[in-house]
Amino acid sequence: MRALVLCILCAICGYGLDRPNIVIIVADDLGWRDVSFHGGEIRTPNIDRLAVEGVQLDRFYVAPVCSPTRAGLMTGRYPIRYGSMRAVYPPWREGGLDVAEVTLPEALAHAGYTHRGAFGKWHLGHSSVKYHPLRRGFTEFAGHYNGAIDYFTHEREGELDWHRGFEPDREEGYTTDLIARHAADFITRRAASPDPFLCYIPFNAPHSPFQAKPEDIPDYDSLEAVPGDWSQPTGARRRNRRILGAMIAALDRGVGTVLGAIDEAGIRGNTLVWFFSDNGGVGGIGDNRPLHGAKASVYEGGIRVVAAARWPGRFPAGGKITAPLSNIDVLPTLMRVAGLKTHGGKPLDGLDVLDLLTGESGGLDRDLYSYIGQQGPGREQVMYMTSEWKLVVRGPNIIDPEADDSQRTRELYRIADDPNERHDLAARNPDLVRRMYEKLQAFRSLQPANAIPPYDVGREGFKAPKEWKLPDS
Questions:
Q1: CA-based torsion, 308, 314, 318, 321: positive or negative
Q2: 19-358 and 368-444: identical CATH topology
Q3: How is the chain split into domains, by residue range?
Q4: CATH fold label, 19-358
Q5: Can you tell me the distance from the alpha carbon of 141 to that of 29, in angstroms, rounded to the nearest whole number?
Q6: How large is the C-alpha radius of gyration of the chain?
Q7: CA 120, CA 302: separation in Å to the nearest integer?
Q8: Pick the CATH number of 368-444 from 3.30.1120.10, 3.30.390.30, 3.90.1070.10, 3.30.70.330
Q9: Which of 133, 274, 355, 430 could form a cystine bridge with 360, CB 3.0-4.6 A?
Q10: Contacts of 249 by beta carbon, 8 Å cutoff, 6+ apart
């Protein structure tokens, strides 16, 4: 009888009986070369393990900064459509991820994923309880609402920002360790369930503040500042680089804790693990070489990130996918994995790339866009990329007819042959630049009038609420 009921449910919802558990691990500001499988000096055996036992996603694209990447992951849509792409959600910001958007955990709930945990950095709105993870499809949450909390005191703006569910939690410990521990506990508890689970693990490491456990720092005393024309003094960059190495080591151990929980629960064969960073490393401290640029830019060093996915028996071990994939592809791909034909929301921008991950398809012809306006309308960056070309425009808002066009730079790269953006070909291809620029203007026009403002708007005079308690309204 139970089998008959399950078959009926499968026919209605469209999913099969072999739905895997899903674990999504997101690092914060991890540089391209800050993992050892990319040739870096920082040892990351557990992250490397995912690349060896699964597939490397060699061209995985995200937004230039934290919140927009998380929003695109949650919705499968460009965050510019619902006003969440210009900047991150800083502590003094009202609003959050549009409640009209259907999220990944909400979609998977309809596919029988009864348990859906989120552990770590939310960063998608904290001004109302309606933006809380438990109101956006998750069934369990432990972590922090804001970015850049203190790793030891768990404070942001002088107030405790560490929570279990809706309530403040004064547990002690280094946040990277706590996030891994909560996620591993969830996996252990939910592994015995007859239903598959979703475990979302957005680590706060290695984002600033640059704080590491004292016992980890000596291992990275030899690290030097990343070369380049950076604004920070060399001594400060060298010091923070060494702390960053220790922070990444702790992050890697956290990933090992999660993978160990999967192994100990005996569910490795039926668990899909997807790992990536939310953007590139911070300029001069994170190492994005040989890519050009860093976090908060639309150059490759800001938006092409470390990524790998593992699903034993389904994704070929040791493979490498060189087609351009994106964070907005995660939701439509996992919908197919879960057997969902629709999620009941607005049209998706992301693609179902499951056939690439399994090796059944070898290529992908697509367009991708990126945008950041965190420093204000006079200093925006937008990017449009095809399979062959990439146009980068910096300067005033490109849809502002009153702006001085001479203040804008247009850079064109044949990205298929010049992945490190060394040769600007804009002057040689004016017609192509014009056509691509028009596409960028159409993309930039998607931003609604009530979009998140630049980063510093509202900062002056802000006082954090006690223990970051969320109002009901």
A1: negative
A2: no
A3: 19-358, 368-444
A4: Alkaline Phosphatase, subunit A (3.40.720)
A5: 22
A6: 21
A7: 22
A8: 3.30.1120.10
A9: 355
A10: 42, 43, 44, 216, 219, 220
- For the chain, 473 residues long, give each residue's pLDDT as a single digit of tens: 323 333 333 433 443 448 999 999 999 999 999 999 999 999 999 999 999 999 999 999 999 999 999 999 999 999 999 999 999 999 999 999 999 999 999 999 999 999 999 999 999 999 999 999 999 999 999 999 999 999 999 999 999 999 999 999 999 999 999 999 999 999 999 999 999 999 999 999 999 999 999 999 999 999 999 998 898 899 999 999 999 999 999 999 999 999 999 999 999 999 999 999 999 999 999 999 999 999 999 999 999 999 999 999 999 999 999 999 999 999 999 999 999 999 999 999 999 999 999 999 888 999 999 999 999 999 999 999 999 999 999 999 999 999 999 999 999 999 999 999 999 999 999 999 999 999 999 999 999 999 999 999 999 999 999 999 998 86
Amino acid at 73: L
